């Protein structure tokens, strides 16, 4: 057994060491994502500690990192509290000097740990410091293996299963990769492991001073490493509540009651409107910052005062319209207009120009994919009521077409000149056969503009001299040119709005949590509102998470395994599920190797991390395709409950001999997959001289 443990450690250290030595430091060739960012904060912590101890470290400077990084924020973290004031050193880096800032340690406590280790080094180059930082990260990985082994031994009371658990976690390609870099991911894994070990120890063996101190250490480690580690804290609370004698049913009912109270309170105190439902201010994924750019909806403005033309046709639909501008009505007073009962009630908005904030971003809405597929090769008509200042040139609603490989084509709308009041514009087009996605884009002329009754309908209607007559203010259907039509756009009249996340939650998240998550709160909420459009993005995102969870490199962002490797992972999950199904069917005669009081919390922990991965996806309805980013890097701590529950499920099979053979084969397969990814994917990728480096790999 000792030889097996020694072989496991040698394999782990060898794979991680080779990976740490072979992965380039500079991010020009890829490398570990965000490593230079985390390393910069570690160096800042080193400098702060050194200054507090009156120690001089002359080899530390921000300029030495410039030659390795393409990202401004990697270096600016060292010298500026506010990244926005960082100099533009991309043009001439040699003339810019950025001293390392002092005064406080920014970010999580894990940077203090890395910084303290750096303080013990002699005067060496920044490159050497980074390599040593990777070595320290591997040491954290060794500690993780020990913690997982101890946890499995506590739960299973079986040395073979304990060693297999440690081997599967340590040799998992995605874990082995991220544990080789200077980052917060490895310490987060270790923190979750310590918390699970300490809380399970209390739940099984009871309270004692050493166990209580260990539990406090686990809680502190989760709080000071990464937000993804904090996710595990409720599970520790569940274990302690169960130890105190609370039944699972009462814990679940209490939790459900608490969530119900929160939901009811939220509905009673409805936050301010976030904007017009289904209409987004356009963002391009390539322009979204690393910390996320908040999703914004188009603004809604009250335009009920625009009544009717003398001939009786509506000049706007309902009481509201979609606006390119925001008007502060508290500081914007409109002049009183004296009109008679026989005069058309037309209130012109020229007076708003002085107090309106006009946004430059176009406004768009993508059709659901099932609607787009039915329009291929057919004639469509686009139309809208539009109000712009008199004399301003504008376009009718534009059409954005997306094809395979994310190639986009913009069909500009017909040009018009603003008149004194509302005017209806329309045109016809034939949709290409090979189109993948279609969006309607509202042109922003640089002045305030209002759109109402925006239509995208199948058929030819634009030849009519008269505008459509809608059935109601929702503008979902009506009569046009003597024929019925259905508006394929949602909320074309701008009457419906969506509410966003309360600002107090966003502020608290920014102050005490993650600004990245705070920026995405509204966006995630809107994607659920618009699920018919975003569902394909979530499907693609879950597929990407599954792939990168089992095997990925470059810090978990890129898939690195062949298809047959994922067949092994799927087989592992299916066999485990079969074992647990057998237990559910024969629970009176089959006893699980894991204590029943631990199984449910581990399952809940797994579900929580799946939710984290779901929420961390960059899915947005105004993108084509709707998925921008999804990776398992942020839910990697789920590997611990996956391995423990998976091995426990395999152990529940009818034959213990077969179970042991399956587990042994699984460990060998994981080791081979890790080695294959390193030798056949990672090393060729980083050493490839081609612009398309994927061609050098075996993928």
Descriptive terms for the model:
699 residues, 5-stranded antiparallel sheet, 23 strands, 13% strand, globular
Write up what this structure looks like.
This protein is α+β, with helices and mostly antiparallel strands and 699 residues long. It has two domains: 2-31 and 125-254 and 538-696, no CATH class; 280-287 and 290-499, no CATH class. Helix content is 46%, strand content 13%. The strands form eight sheets. The protein has a five-stranded antiparallel beta sheet, with helices on one face. Strands 3-4-15-8-13 form a five-stranded antiparallel beta sheet, with no helix packed on it. A three-stranded antiparallel beta sheet has the order 16-17-18, with no helix packed on it. Helix 1 packs antiparallel against helix 6 and helix 9 (185-205) runs parallel beside helix 12. The longest helix has 31 residues, at 126-156.
Question: What would the average pLDDT be, to the nearest integer?
Answer: 81
β-strand amount: 5-15%
* Largest sheet: number of strands, sense, barrel closure: 5 strands, antiparallel
Uncertain spans, ≥5 residues at pLDDT below 50?
Answer: 306-314, 334-352
Strand order of the largest sheet: 2-7-14-10-11
Number of helices: 21
The structure class reads alpha+beta
Radius of gyration: 30 Å
> For the terminal residues, how far apart are their CA atoms?
36 Å
Helical fraction equals: 40-55%
Form type: globular
Task: Give a short overview.
The chain is of the alpha+beta class and 699 residues long.
């Amino acid at each position: 057994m000792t030889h097996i443990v020694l072989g496991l450690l040698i394999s782990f250290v060898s794979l991680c060491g080779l990976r740490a030595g072979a992965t380039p430091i500079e991010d020009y060739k890829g490398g570990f994502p965000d490593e230079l960012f985390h390393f910069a904060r570690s160096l800042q912590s080193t400098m702060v500690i050194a200054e507090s101890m009156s120690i001089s470290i002359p080899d530390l400077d921000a300029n030495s990192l410039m030659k390795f990084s393409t990202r401004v924020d990697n270096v600016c973290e060292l010298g500026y509290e506010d990244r926005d004031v960082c100099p533009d050193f991309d043009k001439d880096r040699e003339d810019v000097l950025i001293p390392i800032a002092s005064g406080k340690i920014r970010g999580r406590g894990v940077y203090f740990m890395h910084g303290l280790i750096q303080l013990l080094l002699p005067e060496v180059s920044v490159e050497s410091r980074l390599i040593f930082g990777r070595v320290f990260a591997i040491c954290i990985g060794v500690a993780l293996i020990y913690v997982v082994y101890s946890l499995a031994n506590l739960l299973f009371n079986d040395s073979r299963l304990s060693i297999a658990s440690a081997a599967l976690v340590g040799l998992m390609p995605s874990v082995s990769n991220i544990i080789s870099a200077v980052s917060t991911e490895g310490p987060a894994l270790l923190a979750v492991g310590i918390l699970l070990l300490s809380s399970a120890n209390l739940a099984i063996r009871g309270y004692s001073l050493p166990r209580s101190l260990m539990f406090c250490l686990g809680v502190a480690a989760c709080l000071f490493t990464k937000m993804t580690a904090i996710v595990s804290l409720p599970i520790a609370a569940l274990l302690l509540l169960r130890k105190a004698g609370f039944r699972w049913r009462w814990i679940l009912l209490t939790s459900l009651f608490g969530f119900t109270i929160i939901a009811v309170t939220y509905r009673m105190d409805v936050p301010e409107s976030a904007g017009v439902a289904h209409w987004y201010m356009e963002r391009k994924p390539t322009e979204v910052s690393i910390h996320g750019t908040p999703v914004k909806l188009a603004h809604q403005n009250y335009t009920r005062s625009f009544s009717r033309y003398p001939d009786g046709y509506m000049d706007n639909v309902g009481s509201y319209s979609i606006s390119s501008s925001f008007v502060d009505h508290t500081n914007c007073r409109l002049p009183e207009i004296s009109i008679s009962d026989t005069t058309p009630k037309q209130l012109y908005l020229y007076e708003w120009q002085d107090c309106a904030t006009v946004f430059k971003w176009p406004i768009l809405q993508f059709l659901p994919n099932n609607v787009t597929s039915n329009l291929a090769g057919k004639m469509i008509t686009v139309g809208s009521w539009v109000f712009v200042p008199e004399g301003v040139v504008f376009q009718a609603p534009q059409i954005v077409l997306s094809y395979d490989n994310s190639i986009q084509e913009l069909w500009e709308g017909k040009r018009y000149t603003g008149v004194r009041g509302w005017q209806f514009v329309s045109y016809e087009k034939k949709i290409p056969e090979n189109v993948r996605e279609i969006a309607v884009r509202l042109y922003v002329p640089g002045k305030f503009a209002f759109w109402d009754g925006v239509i995208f309908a199948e058929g030819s209607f634009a030849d009519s001299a008269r505008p459509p007559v809608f059935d109601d203010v929702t503008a979902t259907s009506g009569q046009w040119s003597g024929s019925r039509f259905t508006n394929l756009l949602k909320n074309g009249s701008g009457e419906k709005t969506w509410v966003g996340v309360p600002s107090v939650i966003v502020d608290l998240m920014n102050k005490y949590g993650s600004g990245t998550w705070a920026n995405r709160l509204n966006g995630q909420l809107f994607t659920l509102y618009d699920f018919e459009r975003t569902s394909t993005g979530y499907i693609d995102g879950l597929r990407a998470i599954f792939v990168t969870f089992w095997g990925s490199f470059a810090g978990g962002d890129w898939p690195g395994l062949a298809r047959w490797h994922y067949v092994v992972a799927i087989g592992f999950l299916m066999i485990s599920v079969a074992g647990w199904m057998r237990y559910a069917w024969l629970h009176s005669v089959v006893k699980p190797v894991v204590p029943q009081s631990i199984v449910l919390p581990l399952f809940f922990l797994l579900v929580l991390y799946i939710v984290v991965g779901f929420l961390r996806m960059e899915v947005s309805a105004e993108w084509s395709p709707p998925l921008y980013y999804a990776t398992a890097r942020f839910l990697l701590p789920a590997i611990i409950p996956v391995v423990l529950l998976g091995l426990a499920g395999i152990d529940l099979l009818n034959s213990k001999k077969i179970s042991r053979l399956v587990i042994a084969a699984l460990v060998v397969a994981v080791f081979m997959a890790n080695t294959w990814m390193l030798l056949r994917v990672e090393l060729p990728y980083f050493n490839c001289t081609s612009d398309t480096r994927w061609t050098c790999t075996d993928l």
